[in-house]
Design a protein that fits this description.
The protein is mostly helical. It is built from nine helices and no strands. The protein is 74% helix and 0% strand.
Amino acid sequence: MARPKEFEIDVALDAAVEVFREHGFAGTSAQMLTAAMKIGKQSLYDTFGGKWQLYCAALKRYSTTETAAHLAMLRGSPEAIIGIEQMLERVVLEAHRPCLGISSISEFSGDHEELVSIRESAGQTLRTALLSNIGKAIVAQDLAVDLDPETAVSFLLANVAAIRIAARGGASQEELSALAHLSLKALR
């Protein structure tokens, strides 16, 4: 008879997210994972199937959590433009922490359908919310009325990635805030 799991799967998965955020897939060992997750190697394999499956589960959890945080900012104000500003401010405040989404793209590009599917699912949810906010901001004349909303979404998401990469490269909070400010200014 199998022993019951003696650890919280969600807590262990959150710990794995942090390890993968910092070290990527290739830079993370099973020993690093089991130490951070406070589980044995056999529990890792029994519960998650292996390092790759754990990485996919961690990316999915990270993407879901990060997208929910972005959505909370976007929907946190009755004014659409304020929601966009709040989302960018959150990105700036969190930019010093590695982004698992960006690192998975850097490490694997589009080579693994499993990862692409996880990123696209979260990305589509965020794109839809941003598109809504941008459309409302255009109607309210808080953004340029001739702005193409789809292009504006792509522009903002590219700038989110740039802010996070700049932070990893050592940019100061002031520099990151300036990048966020310029991103919005370009759309006005």
